[in-house]
Design a protein that fits this description.
With 361 residues, this protein is an alpha/beta fold. It has helices at residues 2-43, 49-91, 153-158, 183-189, 204-209, 217-226, 230-233, 253-265, 283-296, 309-312, 332-338, 340-350; strands at residues 111-118, 130-137, 142-147, 168-173, 176-177, 190-193, 202-203, 243-244, 271-275, 301-305, 317-322, 325-330. Bound molecules: adenosine-5'-triphosphate and magnesium ion.
Length: 361
Amino acid sequence: MGSFSYKLFVKAESKVIINAPLMQVTVYSCILAISWMGAHMIVAEELQTGELMSLLAYCMNILMSLMLMSFIFVMVSMSTASVERIVEVLDEETDIKDPENPVQTVADGRIAFEKVDFSYDRSGSGIPVLKDVSLSINSGEMIGIIGATGSAKSSLVSLISRLYDVTDGRVKVGGRDVREYSVAALRDQVSVVLQKNVIFSGTILDNLRWGNPDATEEECKRACRLACADEFIECFPDKYETRIEQGGTNVSGGQKQRLCIARALLKKPKILILDDSTSAVDTATDAKIRKAFREEIPGTTKIIIAQRVSSVMDADRIIVLNEGRISGFGTHEELLENNMIYREVYESQTGGNGDFDEKGD
Ligand SMILES: Nc1ncnc2c1ncn2[C@@H]1O[C@H](COP(=O)(O)OP(=O)(O)OP(=O)(O)O)[C@@H](O)[C@H]1O
Ligand SMILES: [Mg+2]
């Protein structure tokens, strides 16, 4: 289909190219013809100079309008190509569909992976991204995930909210296979803060309520307190009514991340997933956010993906991912003792003496 729009575009462009010189030739020939005839008529005293001038002006007006008309035709044929591409996207059916009698509520925050294999290529012949992943997470646990870039951390969590379906094995949430739930209900109760956060233009309250349109102002403020976003919001002159520019250009990266966390919290999810969502937040605030999670939403299962060991070391258990496989799953102390990868990451970030050398930014 791509080559089809390409051809349409080339066709439209070739029309534009012929169009411009053709129109120019017509306009200038007309001016020449009128001037030549007019000159003869003036000599024969059939026409006055002023009349010739107005004749020229009128002709130019008409020709200009014709020229613009021809541009409209060109533009229409060009936009047809674009419209077709847009419609193609809108008409695309998702591969992820609701089952017959979908389950609407997630019972609790339990998560289980049973022999999960996953590849982004639907045919299953593509490069496997996750290989033979089995794990079980209790409701209310705080789980850290750590691993090198490309070790499939984001892919692992995307299976929980069923952004993709597994290639083999199954993922269970609240004791049921994710494929038994209504997709909308599942995604409502599994809140994900994506690695690339999205902020819309509008007030802070508008942005927060995008997660839950019925949230009261009190609830919004509580979510911001949990995400440590209240401190900077209170500093704005308009507080919660502060307007955020398109793409969130007037808030900092760390502030944007905290707003996204607050927005995810407003859904009151059973499972909260933060995909590298505090990477731009200083370590002290990062710790404060985790403390608030532990104290104020103990029933919610929290999954925190991070590059910094300091962001996950106080989690109940930590998953160490390596090239799509689980290399270790346990507490900080257990992993330090028997997981090579974890120990290396820890030592490289602390300089081996147990002190994190990074300072809050
Ligand atoms: N949408 C996609 N389509 C095809 N392949 C993908 C897609 N997203 C990720 N991959 C591949 O899957 C592998 C794991 O990617 P993933 O995003 O899960 O890594 P990650 O651990 O989250 O990395 P990072 O720390 O950089 O966020 C990578 O090799 C990547 O090339
Ligand atoms: Mg990722």
